[in-house]
Structures are given as structure tokens and as C-alpha cells.
Design goal:
The complex is a heterotrimer. Chain A is mostly helical. Chain A is 74% helix and 1% strand. Chain B has a domain of 200 residues. In chain B, 73% of the residues lie in helices and 1% in strands. In chain B, helix 3 runs parallel beside helix 7 and helix 5 packs antiparallel against helix 6. Classes of the chains: A mainly alpha, B mainly alpha, C alpha/beta.
Chain lengths: 315, 317, 498
């Protein structure tokens, strides 16, 4: 018993739990739809999607740990992907890789600066800026679909995508564990005022978090456009729907934060979500059900991770 | 730089300035487009068109206005409108009164779900409603997978200016009366400005919040009725992006995004009309959609920044 | 005496409406444990917060070993030689133990922007071991440890770099036997090393036991410094309370008979972690004073009676037999409550004076079920003026008012509601003398007109001056009861508090 208790407290517990959840979901759908779900090839396809969502999830993690929110991830993906296509036509792979990283980071920087300077809820600021980013994406494409030339699709499949995603994951893990930024991210998230008293420049590190988020979203854009091969500009906040797949991974990361492996939790979390989606599709549900599943899963994760406190002020 | 900021902030704290600004903005936009379009925007035909596009927004704004007054946000409105429209169109084939009734009830029910997660489970309203936005959008898409849901064939016969205008004005008047003359407005503002203190002054905070989420849903059910008689059927995109339009409209009307004491009922009407004139005017000027959106985004951010109610020592998330 | 280590010269700090510390000049010496005592609100914590960079002083200078200390924040203070262990949790959850110990000092382990986490963990573990806390693992997330262990980690964090001055701010109340022992050991080490400890505590026995010298603050002013070996706890109490608070300030009468009519009855009230099986009977026209140390649970009693406590057991009944279970019912049955926490519980701080006064009375202001703007305004103005609130107009926002005026608005609200039972928690906390006198006068008037008051207060003189009956609480229970009496002394009450 006491051994089990010890185990529950160790960081292995979180990992084992993630593995168990993954297996349970896989087994569930495998039993219900043995023909159409979950053989090795299919699992690889699920992972492919999970990988690029997880990269964005890593970026959002920095922001969500601190407390604010970024609603512009979707618009950022659209804008960065479109730019990636444009630039790849001129500079080849260099354009494909560098353009979205720069645009993603700049978007993050702008988000952070406007949020800090205006002192308005980050949700509202980033939602408003999304309108601007979307408009820019239309300017960049003139409303036409941007298609990535077949000669630049190395990051759309194994091993290119895996290598890039793994680099991103290691980079995220590295920042969290081996730099001041990681420590301060958690410190600000835990208590802004105390962190400020300890000499942490709260405003500066909030901007840093937004910049990092933008950077990771830039990487997500490379993977997204390479895998999907085309991107249409968005308008009227239609890009908002692209916020949620990465966000779900972030929620997994937050939920498993205390076990000390957020990046793994984000990646496995995204994989679990993919299992769930693809499971329903394998069962014959129309793809429109995806939205319903997204909504329910998000609500469920949040409900499970937030413990209601009596008298707490929740807006 | 720093002193300049202080002057600007203290200016915004002048109640007069806060009151005048949205009106001035409205008049500015009206005049601006009168000049730019050479009066074209305000021909009777165009005004009628403008009005017919405003009903749904005006009505739906009322519910969100109340939610936002309490400091919450509601992003589920657009999808909610879609679901309610599905219910109304489907049931209109049975009985039109039943259809309205069930449409309103559906809205109320969704509102209760929003309220439950926000009030009982203490999850930020933004997260709750955005999850529900997704969920409900999926439902609308599911219901309209094969073909749009058609209303009864004569449903569009209600779509006259007289009916729509009366319907909308009655809703606005009732909402205003309840907000202003029953003390509900005072309570909602108090919740938005300081929830704990409102509780200690005898406001039943949890009950009120549940009630408002429910009411907001029911009002959207009414908006869905107008939407249904206008279109006659529901497709998977019904009510798409309505929530964003509402947000932008309310902010243009001078509403502080975090609610509280500085909220005024006229924010709804002023905002919805400003928004509609702005979009219609931009379209009429032949400005491309991309530029329109760019302008809208920047105007939105500027207005949010101007009207936000910043308090010292507040932690902004 | 030995050399001066820290010299404070005319330190001054004001918050909106209160003068927290008033030109305090004080010396601390090498190799001493120097206790700082005073009632709540006397300015002890503000003084040390100014030294360590938690607050920024308005004027004055701190000089540490000849060099001026001007800390921008706690870590900056650490580098200048001062460290503090605070009352509340000073560690951040979500971070590892090592990250907490070295928060703000990562640069010591950083090369080319890469933090040597391994070296940091190793150093942290060495420190923990050297303090004898080797069961705490530096790599663990701090959430794994309980409050007491987290305090021990804070002790390491505040002392490992050998600060010249260590401040221990009411840390002992949070600690158990083991934690206290560890803390006192560390304090003694600092002293033996020729450095200095500033020790803030409410437990006067502990103060005399541990410290060499004791300085007393009262209402933000420096009163005196005495040698611990020369005085008793009674002497200290006298210094803390002071004598000048008397005269026509409080009500003048003694021992008027109290009516037999019970207007509010609380029976077997229990709120987990706060109060334990507490019963009270309030009579018509009576002022009951409830006193005790800050954490004795008395503040929760007000909430419990008002129906505002969560998880309350026991019953609260009004004269007509109504059970009070929530705030709305309480207000509807003529109970009013002014919280100690004025800015979050008593007042909607980001709202106008008018809205704050009218909020509970909206139903009463209605004419024919309709709320008129004119009536609202007239109502607010009437009661704000009756309380002589200093304001531009009732449309002014609360946040711009001083502490005393805020409290006047709270009282105006309940006078407007015409409640018969008034629960006042720390009604004069942080309020200047003149407004205090107004409030006492008002209470006396209310009492005479047949209203009943429960006054919860940390100020002993106030309890003695105003209450018909005084209940002293300790550890969540009633520990003593006194009737109004000319010969009643502060020491009688204090004896029951500690």
C-alpha cells in the first residue's frame, strides 16, 4: 500500500496513467470497429496529425500556465502557412522554414505587446488581432488557395515531420527545464504578485511567453502546410476553429503538470484526442461529429481538472 | 509618455466623456458614410435593407449584454442561434407557436448548461461557452448533414418590416424596463464590479447568474425566430460568427469588455447600429472584404482600449 | 551594547487613508534577536516590508553596515543583505524545491542562457542537508510538501546566503512544535554569527523567551525599546495598548440594564477550521463585543451569524423563529453586516457611492414596483449626508475615497436599510481618530434607539469602551465572558486571549 502511495507521488505515475488512458481508448474502438480502426498504419496516420497539433500545444502551454490565453493561434497558423507557401516559391525550403517562424514569432510579439500595453484581457486582445491577421492572410493570397509545390513537401510525412516535431518538443522541454524562462513561467502562473516581489519582471516574461507561443505556432504552420499541402485564407474569425486542437493538448499538459512531464503529456494527449476522433469516424459517424466531440472533450478535461472552490470569483 | 497616458486615463474616467464618446462615434460614422457614399447609404431602400439586417443582431445583443455586464463572456450565441433555428424550422411544420416556444426553450436550456458549468463547476464563462460553441456548431452541422432543415412553406410570410420591427422593439423595451426599473441592472452591474461584495450586500449571485445565462439563451431563441422567418431554412452555417459580431457591436457601443458599473443599456442599440452602418458602408464603398476586416479589427481594438475599465492593482489575465 | 548593524532613519509610509508608519527611527545591533511588537495595524509588517522591498517607503533611509539599503524587490533585498520569512506562503507551487530556493537568482547557475539545473539541484540539496532537512528532495515539485515543510524550505531560501539581517514575520503561528524548533535554531545561528534577527510575533511569552530586546510600535509610531530580561508580558501589553485612549471618546454610562428580549440566537455554530461549537444570544439594545487574537475565529463568527459562511453547522435564529441560512434571508430579517475586509466584502469598490448604498435596499426604494432613478439618488444622498461622508457627489466611485469615508458608506448603506441587528467586524480598523469618534457615537445612538450590535474587534480599548458584554475567543471557542463594568481592565481580557 505504502509502495503504491509512493508510486502515486512519483513522476512515473503520470506517464503510466497517460499510457493506460491511451490503451483504453485504443482498445475500446478496436473492439467496436476492428476492421476500420487502429492498425499500425492507421496509428501512424493518427500520430502524424497529433504531432503538429502538439507543437502548437507546446507553444500555448507557456501562455496558459501563466493564466492568459491566446485566441489568435488559428489566425497565426493561417497567416504563417500562407506566407510559407509564398516564400517557398521564391526561396525553396529556406522560405518554407524561415518565413513562418518569423511571421509566427512576430505575431506572438505583437500579441504580447498589445496585451501588456493596453492592460486588457488577453482573450479580447488576441481575438481582435485575429481579425487583423486574417485580413493580412487574405492580402497575401488575394483570396486564392495557396498550394505548396510538391517539391517542398518533405515535412509532410515521415521522417521529416517527425524530426521537426521532435526538435520542437525537445526545444520546449529544454526551455521549461533549463532556462530562467521556464522557471519564471511557472512562478508567474503560481502567483504573479509574489513572483513580482521576488524580482521577476512579470510583464517582460508574459511577452516572452507570447513570443514563444508564436514561434511554436510557426513550426506548427510548417507541419500543417506540408501535411495538408494547401491553405485558404480565412475571414470573420473562421480561423478560430484552428485554436482548439492545440489547446486540447495544452490542457493535457496543464492537467499533468504536477508529474513533471508536460511536453510528453501534450503529445500523448493530442494522440488520445486523435484516437477519439478517428474512433468515431471508424464507427461510421459523420465528420461533423468531430466538433461535438471536441466540445465535449474540452469541457470534460476542464471539468475534471478544475476543482470548484466555494465563493471563488469566476467570470 | 507616462504623463500623457495618465491624462488619457483620467479623461476616460470622466463619466461625461464616456457617455459622449459612443454617441459621437455613431454620429461620426453616420456622417462619414453619408459623405463618402454621397447619401447613397441612406436612401429608403438601403435603410430598409440595413434595418432588416439588424434585427437578429439587436436582439441577440441583449442577452450577451447582460452576461457581459456581470463580467462574463458568451461565445456560444452564434451556434445557439443555429440550433434554435433548427428547432424552430423543424417544428414550424407542426405549429408555428409551438415552434417559437420550443425555440425559446431550447435557447434557455443551452443557457442553463452554460450557467451550470460556469456557476456550479466554476469554469471561466469564456471556456464554457467556447466549448459549447463547438458542440452546438457540430449539432447544427449534424442536423443539416444531408440537406438544410426547411421551415413550413409559408414561414417567410411573417417576414414583413412591420412585424420584425415591432418584435424587435418590444423585446428591447421589455429588456430595458427589466434592466432599469426592477433593480436587475443594478444587481448585474454590482456582480460585474465586485462579485463578493455583491453577495455580501444580499445579491443572490449564483441564482442571478444562472437566470441570466438562461435568459440570454431564451432571447437568442427569439432572435432565431426572426432569422428563421427571414431565411425560411437552416444550413450548417446559420448564425456563424454571430458571437463575434455581437462582441464587436457592444464594444463599438461603448461597453467595457469586463462589464461592471460603467455599462449602459444604450450600448446595445448604439453598438448594433454603428456596427451595421459601418459594415454596410464599407461594402457600399466597394472596399474589399479583406480591407473591411482589417479596418474592423483595428477599430475594435481601439474601442476596447478606449472603453476598458481599468482599475488600479487589477491583475489582467 | 555591540555595534549597530542596521539603522532606520525616519521611515515613513502611507496607504490611501492611513498613515501606516510615521517617521520611525530605530537601531538594530550585531548579534541580537530584536523583537518588534504592537497591535494589529501598528505598522510592524509595513516597516519590515519597506526594508525588504515588498513595499516602497515614502521617505527615510535604512543603513546597513554603513551602506544604504534600497531594495526594489525581495531578491534585490537579498543581494543587499536583508531577507524575510513572511506570514503567508512565500513559496510558489508548480516549481521544484530548488527552483523556489533560487528564484530570482538563476543567473548564478546560468551560462550562455542555459541554466545548469543539475548544479542548482545539487546545491539546493546540499543546503537542505546542511539544515538537517534531508528528507526534502530538491528536485520534487514543492506542492508535494505540506505547509510546515514549505515554511522550512522558505527558511533555507531566506538564510542560506547569510543575510546580515533576517526578518521572521509572524511565522511561528503557522508552525508546529518541530518547525518552531528548527526556526529558533536558525535564528540562534544568525545571532551567534554576529548578525541580527528581527522577530515579529504576537505570542509575547515566545517574544520574551527568544529575543534580547523588544521594540514596541503603536498606530505606526515608535513607542519604546526595552530589554527582554527586564520586563514581563504585562509590561509589554501596557506598552502596546497605551493609555491615552479614554475620556469622552466612548460611551459614558456603565451597567445600564439589558433587555431580556433576545433578538438573535446562534447555537452550536461550527465552521470547519474556524469556529468550534460557538453559541451566542444577542438582546435588544445590547452591544456585544467579541475579542481575541486575529486567528481566534472571531471574524468568522460575524459571517456565520450573517449566513455568509460556507459549510456552517448549527443554527442562527431571529426573534420570530426564522432560520438564517443565507445572506439574503439575513438582510430581509433586518440583519446587517460590515466586514473587516472592506474593499472586497463590504463594498463594491469599482462602483459608485450611490450603487453601494442602495444595493440591499432596491426593493424598498421602488414605488409601485418601479425603481426610479430620482428616488435612488435621493436615497443615497440622504444617508451619505447623514453619515457626513466627504464626497463630490453620490456618483463618485468608491475607489477614490479614504478608508474612513469608505466605512461611512458601508454604515450609510445599513442605516438606509434600517436594520435592527448590526454586526460590525473591525469597524474602526485603519480609520483616523475623528471618524472613529463618529462611529462610536453612532453606535451609542443606535443602541439607545433599541437596535442591537455585535462588534468584533481586535482593539481591546474599543471593546472595553463600547460593549455591554464582552466575549473573548480562543482557538475558535468562547474562552471568557465579561459584563460592562467600570473596573474591568485590559489585562483581564488579554489573560483570556492567550
Amino acid at each position: 500500500m505504502s509502495n503504491f502511495k509512493k508510486f502515486r507521488q512519483s513522476h512515473w505515475y503520470g506517464l503510466v496513467m497517460l499510457a493506460v488512458i491511451t490503451f483504453v481508448f485504443w482498445a475500446f474502438f478496436k473492439i467496436l470497429a476492428p476492421q476500420t480502426f487502429g492498425d499500425f498504419n492507421k496509428l501512424q496516420t493518427y500520430l502524424k496529425t497529433a504531432l503538429y497539433y502538439a507543437v502548437g500545444g507546446c507553444g500555448l502551454y507557456f501562455i496558459c500556465v501563466m493564466g492568459p490565453f491566446d485566441m489568435s493561434v488559428g489566425a497565426n497558423i493561417v497567416l504563417s502557412s500562407v506566407l510559407a507557401v509564398n516564400m517557398s516559391e521564391r526561396f525553396g525550403y529556406a522560405g518554407l522554414l524561415i518565413a513562418p517562424l518569423i511571421s509566427g514569432t512576430l505575431v506572438g510579439l505583437l500579441n504580447g505587446l498589445v496585451y501588456i500595453k493596453l492592460k486588457i484581457s488577453s482573450l479580447i486582445v488576441t481575438a481582435g488581432l485575429s481579425l487583423v491577421y486574417e485580413a493580412l492572410s487574405i492580402f497575401a493570397t488575394n483570396g486564392k488557395e495557396a498550394i505548396l509545390s510538391p517539391s517542398y513537401r518533405a515535412f509532410g510525412d515521415y521522417p521529416g515531420n517527425l524530426i521537426l516535431a521532435l526538435l520542437a518538443f525537445f526545444f520546449c522541454g529544454f526551455i521549461l527545464k533549463y532556462t530562467k524562462i521556464g522557471t519564471y513561467t511557472y512562478a508567474i502562473g503560481s502567483n504573479e504578485v509574489v513572483a513580482g516581489n521576488m524580482g521577476v519582471n512579470v510583464d517582460k516574461y508574459k511577452v516572452v511567453a507570447f513570443v514563444l507561443c508564436g514561434f511554436f505556432v510557426g513550426i506548427e504552420s510548417i507541419l500543417t502546410i506540408s501535411y495538408g499541402t494547401s491553405m485558404t485564407s480565412a475571414s470573420n474569425l473562421a480561423s478560430m476553429s484552428r485554436n482548439f486542437p492545440p489547446l486540447m493538448g495544452t490542457f493535457f499538459g496543464l492537467a499533468f503538470k504536477k508529474y513533471g512531464h508536460p511536453v510528453i503529456a501534450i503529445v500523448v494527449g493530442e494522440f488520445i484526442i486523435q484516437l477519439l476522433f478517428q474512433g468515431f469516424v471508424a464507427l461510421g459517424a459523420p465528420t461533423t461529429v468531430q466538433n461535438i466531440v471536441t466540445g465535449i472533450v474540452l469541457l470534460a478535461i476542464v471539468t475534471m481538472t478544475i476543482k470548484p472552490v466555494k465563493g471563488a470569483v469566476v467570470k | 509618455m507616462d504623463t500623457e497616458k495618465k491624462v488619457k486615463l483620467s479623461l476616460m474616467n470622466q463619466p461625461l466623456f464616456r457617455t459622449v464618446m459612443p454617441f459621437a462615434g455613431f454620429i461620426f460614422i453616420v456622417v462619414l458614410f453619408a459623405i463618402l457614399t454621397g447619401g447613397q447609404l441612406y436612401t429608403p431602400g438601403n435603410l430598409k435593407l440595413l434595418l432588416s439586417q439588424s434585427y437578429v443582431l439587436l436582439i441577440a445583443c441583449v442577452g450577451v449584454f447582460m452576461v457581459m455586464t456581470m463580467g462574463g463572456l458568451d461565445f456560444s450565441q452564434g451556434s445557439m442561434l443555429g440550433v434554435c433555428s433548427v428547432v424552430i424550422c423543424f417544428l414550424s411544420n407542426v405549429n408555428i407557436v409551438l415552434a417559437i416556444l420550443c425555440g425559446v426553450l431550447t435557447g434557455g436550456l443551452i443557457g442553463i448548461v452554460n450557467g451550470f458549468f460556469n456557476v456550479k463547476r466554476k469554469i471561466t464563462s469564456f471556456i464554457v461557452t467556447i466549448c459549447n460553441m463547438y458542440l452546438l456548431r457540430g449539432m447544427v452541422a449534424y442536423a443539416t448533414t444531408k440537406s438544410p432543415v426547411y421551415g413550413v412553406s409559408n414561414i417567410t410570410s411573417y417576414n414583413t418590416m412591420g412585424f420584425n420591427l415591432t418584435f424587435t422593439i418590444v423585446i428591447l423595451l421589455v429588456a430595458f424596463a427589466v434592466f432599469r426599473y426592477t433593480g436587475l441592472g443594478n444587481r448585474l452591474k454590482a456582480i460585474g464590479a465586485g462579485e463578493t461584495a455583491a453577495r455580501f450586500a444580499g445579491v443572490r449571485v449564483e441564482k442571478t447568474k444562472m437566470l441570466i445565462y438562461m435568459a440570454a439563451g431564451m432571447i437568442t431563441g427569439l432572435a432565431a425566430f426572426i432569422n428563421s422567418i427571414k431565411v425560411g431554412s437552416v444550413t450548417s452555417t446559420a448564425g456563424n460568427q454571430l458571437e463575434t459580431q455581437i462582441m464587436i457591436a457592444l464594444v463599438l457601443g461603448g461597453m467595457p469588455v469586463n462589464g461592471g458599473a460603467k455599462v449602459r443599456f444604450y450600448n446595445i442599440i448604439l453598438g448594433a447600429l454603428t456596427y451595421k452602418i459601418l459594415t454596410a458602408g464599407l461594402v457600399m464603398l466597394g472596399i474589399e472584404p479583406k480591407t473591411q476586416q482589417l479596418i474592423m479589427g483595428i477599430v475594435f481594438l481601439v474601442m476596447v482600449a478606449v472603453f476598458a475599465d481599468r482599475e488600479t492593482g487589477m491583475i489582467v489575465k | 551594547m555591540s555595534e549597530v548593524i542596521l539603522h532606520a532613519e525616519k521611515i515613513d509610509k502611507s496607504f490611501v487613508g492611513t498613515h501606516a508608519i510615521d517617521h520611525v527611527t530605530l537601531d538594530f545591533y550585531k548579534g541580537e534577536i530584536h523583537a518588534l511588537i504592537g497591535e494589529n495595524g501598528s505598522g510592524k509588517s509595513t516597516f519590515t516590508s519597506c526594508l525588504t522591498g515588498i513595499y516602497h517607503k515614502d521617505s527615510g533611509t535604512f543603513t546597513l553596515l554603513g551602506k544604504e539599503v534600497n531594495a526594489k524587490n525581495q531578491v534585490d533585498g537579498n543581494y543587499q543583505g536583508v531577507a524575510i520569512i513572511v506570514q503567508e506562503t512565500g513559496t510558489l507551487s508548480g516549481l521544484t524545491v530548488a527552483e523556489n530556493i533560487f528564484l530570482g537568482k538563476e543567473d548564478e547557475f546560468t551560462k550562455f542562457h542555459v541554466k545548469n539545473t543539475k548544479a542548482m539541484n545539487k546545491k539546493a540539496q546540499e543546503l537542505l542537508n546542511s539544515y538537517g532537512f534531508d528528507y526534502i528532495k530538491a528536485t520534487d515539485i514543492i506542492d508535494k510538501y505540506n505547509f510546515e515543510d514549505r515554511k522550512l524550505i522558505e527558511i533555507v531560501k531566506a538564510t542560506y546566503f547569510k543575510p546580515q539581517v533576517l526578518i521572521v514575520d509572524e511565522t511561528t503561528t503557522a508552525l508546529g512544535e518541530k518547525g518552531r524548533k528548527e526556526l529558533f535554531k536558525v535564528m540562534k545561528d544568525v545571532k551567534d554569527d554576529g548578525r541580527c534577527v528581527i522577530f515579529i510575533s504576537h505570542d509575547l511569552d515566545e517574544v520574551l523567551e527568544q529575543s534580547d530586546n523588544v521594540s514596541v510600535l503603536r498606530d505606526g509610531e515608535y513607542i519604546d525599546t526595552v530589554k527582554s530580561s527586564d520586563v514581563t508580558t504585562d509590561d509589554l501589553k501596557k506598552l502596546m495598548v497605551g493609555r491615552e485612549m479614554s475620556g469622552n471618546y466612548y460611551r459614558a454610562d456603565y451597567g445600564e440594564p439589558i433587555s431580556d428580549e433576545v433578538v438573535l440566537r446562534g447555537e452550536h455554530l461550527t465552521v470547519p477550521g474556524e469556529i468550534e461549537d460557538f453559541s451566542i444570544e444577542l438582546h435588544k439594545g445590547e452591544i456585544i463585543g467579541i475579542g481575541g487574537l486575529s486567528e481566534c475565529g472571531m471574524h468568522e463568527v460575524g459571517k456565520a451569524l450573517f449566513g455568509a459562511s460556507y459549510d456552517r453547522e448549527g443554527t442562527v435564529t431571529t426573534a420570530d423563529g426564522t432560520q438564517i441560512k443565507d445572506i439574503k434571508t439575513a438582510i430581509d430579517h433586518s440583519i446587517a453586516y460590515a466586514s473587516k475586509d472592506r474593499s472586497t466584502e463590504s463594498l463594491v469598490i469599482n462602483d459608485t457611492i450611490q450603487d453601494n448604498i442602495t444595493l440591499p435596499s432596491l426593493e424598498d426604494i421602488k414605488r409601485n414596483h418601479i425603481l426610479h432613478a430620482k428616488d435612488e439618488r435621493a436615497f443615497a444622498e440622504k444617508y451619505a449626508r447623514q453619515m457626513s461622508t466627504k464626497m463630490v457627489g453620490v456618483h463618485q466611485f468608491m475607489s477614490a475615497l479614504s478608508g474612513g469615508n469608505k466605512q461611512k458608506v458601508v454604515l450609510a448603506r445599513w442605516i438606509g436599510k434600517n436594520s435592527d441587528i448590526i454586526i460590525l467586524d473591525s469597524p474602526t480598523r485603519g480609520i483616523d481618530i475623528r471618524v472613529k469618534a463618529d462611529i462610536y457615537q453612532m453606535m451609542d445612538k443606535m443602541r439607545k434607539s433599541g437596535k442591537s450590535i455585535i462588534m468584533i474587534s481586535e482593539e481591546i480599548s474599543e471593546l472595553l469602551g463600547m460593549a455591554d458584554r464582552i466575549i473573548i475567543m480562543k482557538d475558535g471557542r468562547q474562552n471568557g465572558e465579561f459584563l460592562r463594568h467600570e473596573g474591568l481592565k485590559d489585562t483581564d481580557l488579554i489573560a483570556k486571549m492567550v
